[in-house]
Design the sequence.
């Protein structure tokens, strides 16, 4: 099992280096190939990071909703209404 993880990490590193070298030369093909081959990595790391930096408020509300269930959304709306009423 550890052998497979080590091989995947080595392949990932090699592909990332090729993509970076291609981008430095102005060639986008290696980068697109990297993105296509490692869709799961992009979807699980890069995309959430971009969303957090672009929309921090809605992301935090969504995380609160997911972590607390429906009670979390009610808590958010109650706290907002208490702030506006005061």
Sequence:
């Amino acid at each position: 099992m550890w052998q497979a993880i080590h091989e995947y990490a080595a392949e990932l590193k090699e592909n990332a280096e090729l993509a970076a070298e291609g981008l430095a030369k102005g060639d986008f093909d290696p980068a697109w190939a990297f993105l296509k081959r490692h869709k799961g990595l992009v979807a699980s790391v890069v995309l959430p990071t971009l969303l957090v930096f672009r929309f921090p408020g809605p992301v935090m509300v969504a995380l609160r909703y997911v972590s607390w269930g429906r009670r979390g959304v009610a808590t958010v709306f109650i706290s907002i209404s208490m702030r506006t009423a005061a």
Summary: The radius of gyration is 20 Å. Residues 2-24 form the longest helix (23 residues). Residues 22 and 29 are 7 Å apart (CA to CA).
